[in-house]
Amino acid sequence: MRKIVAYIGSRRGESSNTYKFAKSVLDFVSANCDSTYEIIRPEDFLINECEGCQVCFREGYCIKDDDIKLIKNKLLGADFIVLASPVYVHNISGDLKVLIDRLGYWTHLLKLAGKGSAVLTTNMSNGHNTALNYLEMVLTSLGSQVVTKYNASSHYPNQLNDEKWIKASSNIIGYSIIDSLEHGVKSTQKLESLFLTLKEMMIKYREYKINYGEWSYWNDMGYFDCENFSELLELQNRSACK
Question: Which of 10, 59, 117, 184 could form a disulfide with 139 if both were Cys (CB 3.0 to 4.6 A apart)?
Fold first, then answer.
């Protein structure tokens, strides 16, 4: 059974518009695909803010002792990831930004390579494009293939209170997720470009013996032997079959 993990960047619990929107999508997926889902909410975990110590870049791990380890394990154990946030001043919520900051070094390690993902936002009327594009960029930088991104508005237009709109949109988003779960992820031009940039950077790190934690991870994972991101996905598939 496939596992979906969704992080909802809102502290309004089940009354949150973002929570309701995401759950509608996830319920559709679970009803039409052999899958289960878990929703992570910021009020249920303690995640401290990043202090910029850069130990993660040098050593390849975060030294802070909080619930980030639990979140990381959930993300790594998922087949598909959803990041969802209310729009605050043309961007994501502070809680979701804190999580992303703490995963910063994962963008050098492509930790979510091989996983599909989706981006959801909710707003009153505007600002969602900035938030959606930012989250898409973050997930791509983590190595994930973003298969869909969608916003739902509560005022102009009033989509979140329109049951027909919610159902239709949940179906559209849900089928994109189901397709990813059933047929696997694919490389994209953005992922290919990212891989080549990171590989060049890691070669320099190894040459100058800096940021050992990052380039040693690439070495251990066999990423240096890959010519492109497509080969990295093939490498992962072979490893999963052993």
Answer: 117
